[in-house]
Amino acid sequence: MVFDRAGYNAATLNEVATLANTMAQAERGATVTKGAVSHHFQSKKDLAEAVITAQHTWSVGLAKQKLEDDEPGLRSAIEMSLGLAAKLSDHEKPLVRAGIKLTLENGPSFDLPVDPYREWIDATVELLRRAVTEGDVRVEVDVAAAAELMVGCFVGVHLLSEVLSGRARLDEQVRLMWTFWLEHLVPEERVAEFRGFVAGRLMAEMVTP
Known about the structure:
- The chain is mainly alpha-helical.
- The chain has helices at residues 2-10, 13-28, 34-40, 44-68, 73-89, 94-106, 116-133, 143-165, 170-185, 191-207.
């Protein structure tokens, strides 16, 4: 996807038109002429916003589904971050990569119905609150502050991984992030258990097609 490869500012109008045609076909289930694309996405900005919204709907939808299904809070937060890392590392699934890149590059300038980062943080807060009631996160943890820092850490780890290895080591770097966070979140006697859970989920993501 052009936005993943080139970013927003460097994407050419021809490349954007091709991407818009692809997205319009996927939505309508039929071939769409480039003339009709202008009615579907009237500008490069409109298309970029559609990509961000699609990526955000997928990523935050994971958290919302886990909350609705009453799944364990901390385990769900771990699964959410490892799942997102797997998508960001997969060159055959560029939508998530492009959506994250666009949000980082131009997030405040886009006209979006929600703030992607705020919803991500809010979903993480709810998962951590649930984890406290389940005994998986210590009661003295400030879950609002922890959630904001965790999302910030993930964004930073992702950017560093992109610069250092083209995201080739992102899954391992997210595992290291959780190794650090577990020491500060989980009761001491449960740390080894959750380290094992992170390692197991990482292996599962690596073999999932």
